[in-house]
Amino acid sequence: MEIEKFVSETNDFNLWWVKMNVLLFHQGLDAALSEEAITKIEERRCAYVTHKAHSAILFSLGDEVL
Question: Which one in 4, 5, 48, 62 has a CA-CA gap of 20 to 30 Å to 13?
């Protein structure tokens, strides 16, 4: 699955946000989006999921946004 990078002047943030949520869910990283879900998974898995989700989000941001 590929998502166009978010660049503030040319992209719609809301659409990008929806696509990122779908991507994270598809990759099994959706627990990183919810504090409630994070508290239910073990600490090591929590750190892994949070780090992977953070990396996926940063990877999909354009240089201007970063």
Answer: 48
Q: Which domain holds residue 51?
A: 13-59
- The answer to the question of residue 8 being in a domain is no
Q: Considering the entire predicted model, what is its pTM?
A: 0.47
Domain count, the chain: 1
pLDDT along the chain (66 residues), means of 10: 71 81 79 71 76 82 75
Phi, psi of 32 (to 5 degrees): -70, -15
What's residue 14's pLDDT?
81
